[in-house]
Amino acid sequence: MTHLLAPAPSYCRRFGVAVLLVALADFFFYGQPAGITWFLFGIALAAAVAALNPLSLASNDRWLWIRPAALLCALLPLVENVSPLSVSVALAAMAVFALSLAGRLRSSVARIARQLLAFVIAAPFRFVGDFLRWRKAARRHGRRRIRLAAIAVWAMPLGLGLVFLALFGAANPVIEYWFSLIDLFALLNLIQLPRLIFWLAVLAGVWAFLRPRLPRFLRRLPRPARPVRAEPAVPARTAIEDVLFGKAAILRALVVFNLLFAMQTGLDATYLWGRAALPDGLTYAAYAHRGAYPLIVTALLAAGFVLAALRPGSETSGDPLIRRLVYAWVAQNIILVISSMMRLDLYIGIYALTYLRIAAFVWMGLVAAGLALIIARIALGKSSEWLLSANLLTLSATLYACCYVNFAALIANYNVDHSYEMTGQGVPLDTQYLRSLGPGALPALDRFLAHQANAPATDEPCRRDLAIAHAGNEAAYRAEQKNWRAWSFRDWRLIRTLDKRGPLVVPQPSQPSVPGR
Predict the structure, then answer these.
(1) What is the 3-state secondary structure (H, E, C) of 61-78?
(2) In 3-state terms, what secondary structure has residue 470?
(3) Phi-psi region of 426 (alpha: psi -120 to 50; beta: other; left: phi over 0)
(4) Residue-wise burial string across 325-355, b where 16 or more C-beta atoms lie within 10 A, e elsewhere
């Protein structure tokens, strides 16, 4: 009889915890601003995952304290600021935490990345699949007995609890007053279609963490042992392979590529670094903008060629001359990426800073790091999996560090400080774009308005309109921050900065002079 009832408690317990988490998510998120509640919900979800996995309670597990400590570090960006990047980092860490407690996590970084991809693909459908699987198990083991057993488990606690609650209501006028405040029709009005969709989405999301599994079609199946056959000492290759991808072809390709890249590096050194005079009709901004992104594509193609030409254990990877040429070529590619960053910096100095240009800077830095790791892999004789793991760690560390950077304030401060209105050079400040950056741009706009207070009177209408819109945005932001759910460490610092500045004064329109007065 015991084995017939075994499937029900596991699913029912997890479903009960999932329902509690859905209720908590409704209280934290639905119709509320994003803030510290994301961190609090992550802590609650992590506690639920740990409580439902027996491996988390093993006292002899050497990872007992490392897992929660690593998860806490991944959740800390949510305290700094809630953004798509910080939420993505937290979700990835939560998936690793859940898979680790379930004993399904691989040891290699590259394999963990594949598991995370499989987890993300399967997460939206995990609850539906488990529900159908539970229905099949219930039908197989006697659906009525399992259902009655699940109901009977809660019948006595809920029934007797209602009796006690009714007695307390009769004996305590405060509880009776609470009962009088309950409006069942008002509660029914809360059940709306958008809210139901929100509940189902949260239920499907938390269920994937409470019962972490990977899809079967993405699991690596053990390969059957193949019979060992005698192979010739030197495998035969076709003439086309020898000509196009042989050692001689790769050697000549590396010589040609090094010469071409040396020419490009020499041109950058002359015009970009040496500031030599450009041909007529060509500006430094055009020179910088045209070359920044194509050179990154060139570096990526070069990296792909190096990985294909110097596979571990291949004939070309052991040739000293080819290795030196590869080192020289990859070093030139790194210089090329640095040159692309300088081009982009030159372009930004003329046309201001945006989110996409910051993303381009980060991407170029990752490409340069990837090229350096290629050299390390060749020099140390590491495998392709080591290279992939090293690049994933570099990417993860970069994204984690970006969670603590206030890019909105960075863009706003740079654009204000380098605008035409502030320096007399460059382009006029795009105040519409600055306002779209959100509250992080408020201090920079304050400095801009203070500087523009001494501007010519012809600019007074535009300045007044900007000040009115700025004051409205600040008032809305302050009103939102009165809700405790919206708190974050970055917003707390911003509110303190705005409080130190004092109330914002909106310039009044000047009165026209009346003749005779």
Answers:
(1) CCCCCHHHHHHHHHHHHH
(2) helix
(3) left
(4) bbeebbbbbbbbbebbbbbbebbbbeebbbe
Question: Which of 22, 24, 31, 72 is closest to 50 using CA atoms?
Answer: 72
Two structure tokens written together for 240: 């086309």
Task: Work out the burial of residue 250: count CB atoms within 10 Å of its CB; fewer than 13 is exposed, 13-18 middle, 19 or more buried.
Answer: buried
List, as own/partner pairs, every contact residues 405-411 make where C-beta atoms lie below 8 angstroms and the sequence separation is at least 24, other chains included. Answer: 406/81, 406/440, 406/490, 407/355, 407/358, 407/440, 408/437, 408/438, 408/439, 408/440, 408/441, 409/440, 409/441, 409/443, 409/444, 410/353, 410/358, 411/353, 411/354, 411/355, 411/358, 411/437, 411/441
Instruction: Indicate the Cα dihedral angle 469, 472, 473, 479, nearest 10°.
Output: 180
| Residue showing tokens 């999996």 | 385
Q: What is the identity of the amino acid at 292?
A: A
Which tokens go with 162? 């209602």
Q: Helix 384-402 and helix 109-141: axis angle, to 10°? A: 90
Which stretches within 271-354 are classed as H helix? 284-309, 320-351
What is the pLDDT, as a whole number, of residue 264?
78
Can you list the residues of the chain whose pLDDT is less than 70?
1-10, 54-63, 135-158, 164, 168-172, 174-191, 216-246, 272-293, 295-296, 312-315, 455-460, 502-517
Contact between 145 and 139 under an 8 Å Cβ cutoff? The reply is no
Q: What is the DSSP secondary structure assignment for residue 221, as one 8-state letter?
A: P
Question: Is residue 382 packed enough to be buried (19+ CB in 10 Å), middle (13-18) or exposed (0-12)?
Answer: middle
Give the closest residue to 127 by CA, choosing from 22, 211, 39.
Answer: 211
Q: Residue written as tokens 């915890």?
A: 17
CA–CA distance, 144 with 4 (Å, rounded to integer): 11
